[in-house]
Amino acid sequence: QVPLKPGRSLMDWIRLTKSGKDLTGLKGRLMEVTEDELAKHNKKEDCWICIRGFVYNVTPYMEYHPGGEDELMKAAGTDGTDLFDQVHRWVNYESMLKECLVGRMSVKPVAAPKEISTLSEEKKQLNGMLPEKKAQAASAKDLIPSYDWFQTDSLITIVIYTKQKGMNAELVIADCQDKRLRGEIIMDDHSYLVEVDLDHPVQEDVAVNIAEKVGKVEITLKKKDNIHWKMLGQPLESHNTFKKCTDRGLFYRKCKLVSKTEVTHDTKLFCLMLPKSTHLHVPKGRHVYLKQIIAGTEIVKPYTPVLPFLPLNFKEPSHHEGARIYLMIKIYSCGLFTQALDHLQIGDYISVSNPEGNFKKTQIQTSEDVFLLAAGTGFTPMVKLLDFALAEVSSLRTLKLIFFNKTEDDILWRNQLEELALKDERFEVQFVLSQPTKNWLGKQGKISSSLLSEFVKRSKKDSKVLICICGPTPFTEQGVQYLRDLGYSQEEIHAFTA
Ligand code: FAD
Ligand code: NAD
């Protein structure tokens, strides 16, 4: 992010888009844009960018872009889809830039997302059984999941054969809304999708059963009427496809706000209840996107689910039910999204996306020394990591949280952290304040090389270390640099970023 001039906030942009001003300079006309035409608009004072086949005149948006004008100019006069996806695939540009729409590209500039399989012929019959000759020719597709379905008087069960061991509840995301079933299986950076407009209505609840060893996933729905179904339903656009996760759009479901409790003077714990028709467990280290319509524009921001509290007993792995998502969110007095969030009433609904992020639990599973460097709400991804490391990482010797805040009042879950440190001798917490009062006897300052060399140390020579870092971007960037200078390798450091 770069500092924006006064009067150039997101809210100011929304106001401008609603002012009726002609932002494209085309007086409301839409045009077909050729590549040559697009290329001509490559200057700050005349800048067009193509995203997913649509061309926007982003000239008026320049001063409002949180990433700065130079970032936007990288795509000037070209197809910026890849660049956009790398930086913020989740930003709802269609809504934010709708008044800047110039038109469509006359020749589609981007290749369709790479699909390994669409099995399009099969879409027509939808009973999941491959014709014999197709099955013989399927060797190249052997690793791609397939599905089948069956029914009893009252149930419909969709069986997905992932052909992969180690399936678990976090890798299955199922939603059933208004007769539309969407079942996604995450397999590394790809996902397999069953997406069907069901033949008949079903009841609200969805059950997911996983046979981990054989990689079989069953999604069971309850029929509303006990009649015999002739088919599962009509395939939807992405039905039976196996694609890179990043080539799929974000899917949202509406969740109910069931409680909102104070954590500190400006931070609250929001508890959202997933619909009964959703199966979703957000993996540790991953975030979700919340979507709200603010002043008529869809705005999306990422948040990292935490636990309702820090468990203190790690004898048994904790089984947190998947029906609720807890988010610890700092409400900024001038924050566009968090102000709107804070105004939600208990019982209101908000859209929550599928999880995203690149942390893999294998990174921590065999670690001996784990260091968590958190600043402010950068504490949020550390919550589940703390729990997981203490409960399930048998190799763990030391776990240290170094928690940077401005003042004592800003420290999130301070009592719980101190209690945990007393209870579990593997865990230690160090608070560092950048704006302490005179009474503060603890560590002061910001992240620095000397502070890191004092606190981040291997418990024995060659011990397996993981250092996770999360906070404001400059904090994370400086931290990573100091750690690299101190000799920690890239594999030993995980930085949480957007
Ligand atoms: P904004 O309107 O963005 O403003 C926030 C503050 O910054 C305000 O004080 C504003 O005046 C100032 N500001 C904004 N833009 C600029 C600018 N360009 N120049 C100068 N000042 C500016 N937050 C949490 O609380 N909990 C989480 O669990 C969490 N998880 C996250 C996970 C990820 C992967 C990422 C990337 C961020 C996460 N965040 C989290 C931050 C969150 O996404 C929002 O950025 C945050 O809630 C602020 O949103 P806002 O719209 O209310 O504030
Ligand atoms: P804050 O402003 O209260 O600052 C907390 C501490 O961060 C400060 O005490 C200081 O030690 C450090 N810090 C702040 N600015 C710094 C700078 N420029 N250089 C070095 N150190 C600095 O923090 P906050 O308002 O709670 O913000 C938390 C940040 O963490 C947000 O930017 C949020 O987007 C980010 N976050 C990211 C993720 C993620 O990427 N996965 C998750 C959660 C939060």
UniProtKB/TrEMBL annotation:
Keyword line: Endoplasmic reticulum, FAD, Flavoprotein, Heme, Iron, Metal-binding, NAD, Oxidoreductase
Cofactor: FAD
GO cellular component term of the entry, any: endoplasmic reticulum
Catalytic activity: 2 Fe(III)-[cytochrome b5] + NADH = 2 Fe(II)-[cytochrome b5] + NAD(+) + H(+)
Domain FAD-binding FR-type: 250-362
Pfam families: CS, Cyt-b5, FAD_binding_6, NAD_binding_1
InterPro entries on file: Cbr1-like_FAD-bd_dom, CS_dom, Cyt_B5-like_heme/steroid-bd, Cyt_B5-like_heme/steroid_sf, Cyt_B5_heme-BS, Cytochrome_b5/Flavoprotein_Rdt, FAD-bd_FR_type, FNR_nucleotide-bd
Broad class of the protein's primary localization: endoplasmic reticulum
Molecular function (Gene Ontology), one example: heme binding
Subcellular location: Endoplasmic reticulum
EC numbers on record: 1.6.2.2
Gene Ontology BP, a term: superoxide metabolic process
Domain CS: 142-233
Ranges of residues in domain Cytochrome b5 heme-binding: 30-106
Superkingdom of the organism of origin: Eukaryota
Family membership: Belongs to the cytochrome b5 family. Belongs to the flavoprotein pyridine nucleotide cytochrome reductase family.
Protein name: Cytochrome b5 reductase 4
